[in-house]
């Protein structure tokens, strides 16, 4: 399969499972899955590897969103407008790559990640109580703005989208970590759909490999969602801080290279 032997296939399967687990809790699975694809298939076009990653991810994210929706009272009045705006703006973000290199965003994203981690560490009650802050038109407008900005970012650059969504849902809408994670999955499905709307028609997909990784992603998603639902917001908060700390180290390393 695509010049792969059993060992690289096994590595990609493990990476997809772990990525699905991380994505289901706090997002960020792409930082696991994408490097694994580039390592295993160095001769493939980057767009093909990104398309394969998105195809795999959308199944795990959809599975997590479905499981959260069955167990958590979903904030649909916020989530659906955010998802719609993200769907539209993700495609615009992908188009913007043609005139602005994504690498110029690395220092800014690093600062935003540090800010999010510092804010969360400093406020021990941050995301501990689900207390929605907005209703009516204001909720709708804020959701559109949040979804649009994050959707554009995901289409343009992408890493850490799920974690940014969780932080913003808590900071601007008063969600707890569990509800914010659940809402983030729905928005992530929308941004992944927008990306696949570009990748699949242009042939940027390895179908058999994508299906295999999607199955592993769903298994990881099941495990991650189970733990998040069982242990609640306190568990998601700890996972969020751990993953964002890894993001900061990764972005710092890449920026200073």
UniProtKB/TrEMBL annotation:
Keywords of the record: Cell membrane, Membrane, Transmembrane, Transmembrane helix, Transport
Bilayer topology annotation: Multi-pass membrane protein
Main location class: membrane
Subcellular localization(s) per the UniProt record: Cell membrane
Domain of life: Bacteria
A cellular component annotation (GO) from this entry: plasma membrane
Annotated TM spans: 12-34, 80-99, 105-122, 143-170, 182-201, 208-229, 235-253
Family: Belongs to the 4-toluene sulfonate uptake permease (TSUP) (TC 2.A.102) family.
Protein name per its UniProtKB record: Probable membrane transporter protein
């Amino acid at each position: 399969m695509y010049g792969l032997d059993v060992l690289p296939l096994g590595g990609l399967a493990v990476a997809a499972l772990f990525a699905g687990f991380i994505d289901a809790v706090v997002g960020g699975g792409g930082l696991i899955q994408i490097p694994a694809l580039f390592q295993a298939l160095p001769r493939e076009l980057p767009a093909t590897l990104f398309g394969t990653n998105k195809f795999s991810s959308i199944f795990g994210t959809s599975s997590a969103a479905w499981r959260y929706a069955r167990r958590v009272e979903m904030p649909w009045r916020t989530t659906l407008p955010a998802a719609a705006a993200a769907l539209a703006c993700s495609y615009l973000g992908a188009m913007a790559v043609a005139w602005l290199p994504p690498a110029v965003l690395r220092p800014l994203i690093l600062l935003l990640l540090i800010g999010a981690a510092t804010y969360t560490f400093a406020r021990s009650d941050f995301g501990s109580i689900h207390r929605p802050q907005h209703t009516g038109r204001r909720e709708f407008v804020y959701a559109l703005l949040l979804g649009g900005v994050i959707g554009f970012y995901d289409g343009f650059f992408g890493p850490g989208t799920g974690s940014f969504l969780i932080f913003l849902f808590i900071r601007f809408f008063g969600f707890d970590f569990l509800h914010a994670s659940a809402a983030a999955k729905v928005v992530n499905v929308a941004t992944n759909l927008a990306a696949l709307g570009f990748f699949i028609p242009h042939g940027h997909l390895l179908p058999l490999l994508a299906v295999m990784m999607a199955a592993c992603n769903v298994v990881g998603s099941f495990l991650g969602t189970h733990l998040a639902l069982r242990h609640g917001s306190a568990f998601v908060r700890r996972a969020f801080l751990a993953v964002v700390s890894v993001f900061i180290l990764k972005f710092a390393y890449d920026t200073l290279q």
